[in-house]
Amino acid sequence: MFESLSERLESAFKQIKGEGRITDLNIAATVKDIRRALVDADVNYKIAKEFTDNIREKALGQKVLTAVSPGQLMVKIVKDELVELMGGSESQFNAKGNPAVILIAGLQGSGKTTFSGKLANYLKTRKNLSPMLVAADIYRPAAIDQLKVLGGQIGVDVYSEPENKDAVAIAKQAIAEAKKTNKNVVIIDTAGRLAVDEAMMTEVANIKAAVNPQEILFVVDSMTGQDAVNTAKAFNERLDFSGVVLTKLDGDTRGGAALSIKYTVEKPIKFVSSGEKLDTLDVFYPERMAQRILGMGDITTLVEKAQAQFDEEQARKLEKKIRKNQFDFEDFKQQLEQIKKMGNIKDLLGMIPGMGKAMKDIDISDDAFKGVEAMINSMTPVERRNPDLIDLKRKQRIAKGSGKDIGEVNAFMKQFEQMKQMMKMMNKMPMGGRMGMGRR
Known about the structure:
By secondary structure, the chain is of the alpha/beta class. Helices cover 56% and strands 9% of the residues. It has 20 helices and eight strands. The protein has helices spanning 3-17, 24-40, 45-60, 70-85, 112-125, 141-154, 167-180, 198-211, 226-239, 256-265, 286-293, 299-309, 312-323, 329-341, 345-350, 355-358, 370-377, 381-385, 392-402, 406-428; strands at 100-105, 131-136, 157-159, 185-190, 215-221, 243-247, 269-273, 281-283. It has an eight-stranded mixed β-sheet, sandwiched between helices. α9 (226-239) links the parallel β5 and β6 (243-247). α4 (70-85) packs across α11. The model is unreliable at 430-440 (pLDDT under 50).
């Protein structure tokens, strides 16, 4: 995400990187390029100008320390301004109540229904709450079916009344049902239209008045840029929503919505969503997003994703096996499955500082591990636990069973041995005990 903006900003910083000091002249050229990059990313010109005016003012007012180059200082100033533009710090999400009521609003196609499912999954798995989903889109039968499918996938009840054409009544009855069944969060998925219209606004405003939600989340497709910001403004004038959700961040996102929306409606971005998988929802951290836009990676989020998937007790057992050089294909397969649960592989690699640019033109499919898994699945349980048993005859059988040639099996076996040796060496280091895989 934001690949084009990241490249343009990096290019702007080159103006000043080789300079020995900050001057009016080199700052003017850099700031001009930053402003152009933001406008091209679909950021409103007024916001881009105010942003770059702040950068110029701060840059000219700073003395460059001998240990810091003008280029490094400029990157820091831009990062700090980006963080401020996107809200400064993480915004709290209120899911406390008896039950807590969360109202979801936005245009049709923005990803409201999918987000509702993701939010229910997030509250259930990460916050140990008991959510109920409510199908209050009375115009699109497919929305009710979609919500039921999502609810089934995550084990969350869905309240619907397909024959009822009164969205307000459905929302009120759902809350009554939630109280009866001890659900502590109600997530109401409302109807959207292709454009802002009076009927939609009136209906969602009426639902708000009837159920008094703790949170009203405006869901916006981040690929729509400045249009998203204008829509957010219209919704906020009627609903006074509490926060924004940016969806489809894995698409061709130029960045305009993420950078402009907080400034325009003065409401925080609370969540960001990418992909269709129901565990691809993250709390929005302005600092981390700014780091990613500037190619600094996002190690904190990467570690959090790993910690959410890796079991501490399992990690201890794995560490002992690595120390004794007993790491086998069963262990390797288990690690692959946990890595896959963390999300899109290319996105994960992009969180490592410096990797975002390196990965730009490389297409890594989520099926990248399929060949390796096929080879492991073609081994017998005894072979998986005892890799040394795998001779040429066994390799030929594994190749045939996995649809690979013998050369691919040999290469995989060699890489596996190299990885085992590397893991053993890492665990012999003084910090090894504290850096076991998955250790919290």
